Amino acid sequence: MPESVKAPFSGQIALVTGASRGIGAATAQAFAAAGAHVIVTGRDTKALEAVEEAIHEAGGSSTIAPVDLSEPDAIARLAVAISNRWDRIDIMVLAAAFFPPLTPVSQMDQKDLNRALTVNVLATQALLAAFAPLLKRSDDARLIGLTSSVAQSPRAYWGAYAASKAAFEVLLESYAQEIANLSSTRVAIIDPGATRTAMRARAYPGEDPATVKLPEVVAERLVELLQEPFATGYRERVGAAR
Fold first, then answer.
1. 33 phi and psi, to 5 degrees?
2. 161 is catalytic
């Protein structure tokens, strides 16, 4: 099999946030298997080390970069550290998210709401600002934001998370339009759909995990999508394994 088929992302640099577990971890491993050098970020250092070990055992290449997106200046420090080592970012996946407790709007805990807005909205803007120059230096940069169906179809008790994800989508869509004529960076918003993650288990505690797809299914779809000539502003909801 030709090398280009074996490793479609060979020589590319990928940055995945929220990569310590769930879809982020599966995506980091899938991108590394596809040949990318993956910068794996998240708050849990031990979990990141486990993801990196799995990548290396599979013959891939990665670097862990522990970071708490809610900390002031953390993203700026991350961007400086990465730019000191690499001259570009080819792939960026925004998979990190904070899922606040489900509660009526009238009873929201302000600390939980603030953290959701900080991680899901403010950190997104900071990531876009900090890494735009590195993405612009790539010949074919792709930026993927993982969202939720509640961003466009809110429902009872999901107000805090839905509001933060709606704002997340607006930021990405606005950014895509702003750079359309200034950069080759393509932006896509992907709804993973029902996926077997810790976040899903908290949202649906009575659900049988075996009835929803594994994170690896989403990761495999992202590998496929990034090899396709999708137009910036592309949207997709990932279905079950095909």
1. -65, -25
2. yes
- How far, in Å, CA of 240 to CA of 194, rounded? 8
Residues 229-238: tens digit of each pLDDT: 999 999 999 9
Q: Report residue 1's pLDDT band, with 50, 70 and 90 as the boundaries.
A: very low
What's the rounded Cα separation, in Å, for the pair 86 and 77?
A: 14
How do residues 153-205 score in pLDDT, each as one tens digit? 999 999 999 999 999 999 999 999 999 999 999 999 999 999 999 999 999 99
Contact of 39 with 14, CB cutoff 8 Å: yes
Q: What is the pTM of this model?
A: 0.95
Beta strands in 103-153 (DSSP E): 142-146
CA distance 202 to 222: 24
For residues 104 and 100, what is the distance between their CA atoms, to the nearest angstrom?
12
Round to whole Å and give the CA distance between 18 and 28.
10
Question: Which of 157, 161, 175, 204 is flagged as catalytic?
Answer: 161
Angle at 10 between CA 126 and CA 222, to 5 degrees: 55
- Geometric angle at alpha carbon 201, from 198 and 207, rounded to 5°: 150
> Considering only CA atoms, which of 18, 8, 192 is closest in space to residue 92?
18
Written as six digits, the tokens of 158 are 């999901």
The class level of CATH for 3-237 reads alpha beta
